[in-house]
Amino acid sequence: MIEVRHLTKYYGEHAAVDDLSFEVEDGTIYGFLGANGAGKTTTMNIMTGYLAPTDGEVMINGHDILEEPAEAKKTIGYLPEIPPVYPDMTVYEYLGFAAALKKIPPRMREEQIDRAVMALELGGTADRLIRNLSKGFRQRVGFAQALLGEPETLILDEPTVGLDPKQIIEIRDLIRELGKTHTVILSSHILSEVSEVCDRVLILKNGRLAACDTPANLAAARSGKGGLHVRSDGSEEAVRGALAGVAGVEDLRIWQDGGETCADITTAPGLDIRRAVSRALFGADCMILGMREEKETLEDIFLELTEDDLQEDAETEPEDGTAEEISRKEEEDR
Q: What is residue 129's DSSP assignment?
């Protein structure tokens, strides 16, 4: 269990995170969303102990990340947006170094490194210098170090950045598999990726929590209406007459498209009238050529909730990277 309580972080006079509170339940994959500058990366860096908050606290399995950092960090695997790799090391050397930093017992290091290398399919690059790897493989190496130590929680900031389509699919499959035994917090700008992989979604706006729920519940709560799109070979008059008598139809729009009759049907939220529509059209001798439910997508919800953030995108949070960069930024703020 991760508990974020009244978290606040200022950069000068700018509040990157503003009195943010939420809980992350065990065994769940969370999508962490927000426009650039909404506070995602800052929040992740505070949750993992890379950055100190101005106010508030983060509890990791009952351990305060500031008061008991060693105990809290034992249960976290973190992949920052910029993977913390050393280009002059080989993949194996770097993972061995990371395992030592995590204080994994020497007798267990080789087994855990081999398991991470296999999971990320890094076997063919294990003896190569990281500087000679593509951006996608560097991302994989960063992901591999996050798996070391068998952490209960994985915090992944843009884990598929720089990967080709095949690698993206493989990483998504890996995240789904890890979600069966881990708690995962996944930040991504690819909303279709979040819809496919995540059980729940956290959306930030101006450093505050704008929404937290399952993608399905968010869509149902915000759309307010149900919808159905139907294509038929019947005439406009026949289709209108058939559908107008279906119980639950609140609004009906019909038009012609390429010789087919299209109908957009509005219903009460949660009402399924597909069978009734099928029977009505069949009874009117109108063949159904296509039918689909019209649902509000995660993209629609995100754009609606973060519209102001997107318009103010020029005022972005600092792009937190390495510990040295973070320290430099805090020194500049002082």
A: B
Angle, alpha carbons 228-230-233 (nearest 5°): 170
Name the helix (H) or strand (E) containing 57: strand 55-60
Strand partners, 266: 227, 251
Q: What CATH number corresponds to the domain at position 131?
A: 3.40.50.300
- Residue 307: C-alpha distances to residues 64, 201, 313 (Å): 34, 17, 10
Same domain, 92 and 150: yes
Tokens encoding 17: 């995170």
Buried b (16+ CB within 10 A) or exposed e, 252-287: eebeeeeeebbbebebeeeeebeebbeebbeebebe
What's the predicted TM-score (pTM) here?
A: 0.73
154 and 255 co-located in one domain: no
Hey, what are 174's tokens? 């890996």
Contact 279, 245 (CB under 8 A): no
267, 227 contact by CB (below 8 A): yes
- Examine the domain organization and report whether 57 and 204 are in the same domain: yes
Q: Is 216 exposed, middle or buried (0-12, 13-18, 19+ CB in 10 A)?
A: exposed
Please give the structure tokens belonging to residue 155. Answer: 């915090």
| Structure confidence by residue, pLDDT tens digits, 269-291 | 778 899 999 999 999 999 999 99
